[in-house]
Specification:
79 residues; mainly alpha; 0% strand; 3 helices
Length: 79
């Protein structure tokens, strides 16, 4: 869970930039321009918008994954 949360935190700025690029339908803007816009509009905090939700989803997904893995390993009696 800790690793998933750290990964979500570290990759959040890239996800914000990617999402902004994907939602710019009509404008052909570069990633450098997107980075400048985010920093100008929101400051450094803008790159971490939604980090709590992202970390929560990744942590929840990790819990489900490893719980299911352990359950089925025990069910199949795999050591």
């Amino acid at each position: 869970m800790i690793a998933a949360c750290i990964a979500g935190f570290v990759s959040c700025p890239l996800d914000v930039i990617k999402t902004r690029l994907m939602t710019q339908q009509m404008r052909q803007e570069s990633s450098g321009g997107i980075i400048q816009d985010i920093y100008r509009d929101y400051g450094l905090k803008g790159f971490f918008r939604g980090v709590g939700f992202r970390c929560g989803i990744l942590t929840f997904g990790g819990c489900i994954y490893f719980s299911s893995l352990q359950y089925f390993r025990n069910l199949m009696k795999v050591e």
